[in-house]
UniProtKB/TrEMBL annotation:
Domain of life: Eukaryota
Span list, region Disordered: 29-62
GO molecular function, one term: sequence-specific DNA binding
GO biological process: positive regulation of DNA-templated transcription; response to auxin
Record-linked SMART domains: HOX (SM00389)
Organism: Gossypium davidsonii
Coiled-coil region list: 105-167
Protein name listed in UniProt: Homeobox-leucine zipper protein
Protein purpose: Transcription factor.
Pfam families the UniProt entry points to: Homeodomain
Amino acid sequence: MTTQMKGLEDPMALITQMYPCIYTQVAPQQGEISKPRRRRKKNKGGESGAATAAETAKKRKLSQEQVDLLELNFGNEHKLESERKDRLASELGLDPRQVAVWFQNRRARWKNKKLEEEYSKLKTIHEGVVVEKCRLESEVLKLKDQLREAEKEIQGLTERVDGVSSNSPSSSSVLSMEAVDPPPFLGEFGAQGFEDQDVFYIGQNSYINGMEWMNLYM
DNA sequence: GGTGCAGAGATATTACATCA
DNA sequence: TTGATGTAATATCTCTGCAC
C-alpha cells in the first residue's frame, strides 16, 4: 500500500466491504478487535533451528527462466496444489518449499496491486460524486433565491388586494367580487407584467388605471 | 457436537541483492 | 557509501478438513 491511500477515511474498510472476495480470511469482522502480532526476533546468530537453509546458502535470486515459468503457472492458477508444487519444483530445480514461498509472495503482490487499482477507481468515482454534490448544492441555493423572490412578489400583490378591498365601500355595486380573484394570466409567478402598471382587474377583462379607479369613489 | 492436530494460506517482518 | 526498492525467506496467526 502506498501513500496514495491517505486522504480517504479508512479506505481499506470500504474496499473490504466492496470486495469481500479479496478480504475474507484475515480482515477482522465488525466489532472484532484484531490481535497484535507478536514481533519476530531477529535471527542473525543462527542458533535457532528454523533458518538453516538461509544461513548456509546465501540468498540468491531466481533466474529469469525460473521466474517466467512461475509467472506462467501463476497466470493459470493462483493456488498451488501439492502435486503441481512438486512437479514445478522438479521442473525448475528448486525446493518445493521455495515454490510455495514464491507463490505466497506472488499472491501478496497481486493482491496489493489489485487493491491499489480498486483504490484508484474508487477515488475517481468519489471525486466525481463530490463535484456533482457541489453542483447540486449551488442549484439548490439558486432555486431558494428564486423562491424567496416569488414569495415577495406574492406578498406584495396580496397586500395590494387587501388594501383595495378594505378601502372600498362594501355596498358598492361597481366593484364586483371578481376584484379579489387573480387576473386571468399573471406570468410565471402570477404577477409578471402587472407590478409596474398600477392596474386593477375589475371583471370582464377590463383594466383601468389605479388613480382613475380611485376617482370613481371620490 | 466437541476437540486436537496437521496442512495450507495470509500477513508481517527480516535479510539480502541491486541500483541510482 | 548509502538509502531506496524489490524479493526470497521466516514467523506467526487463522482457517479448514479429518480422525477420534
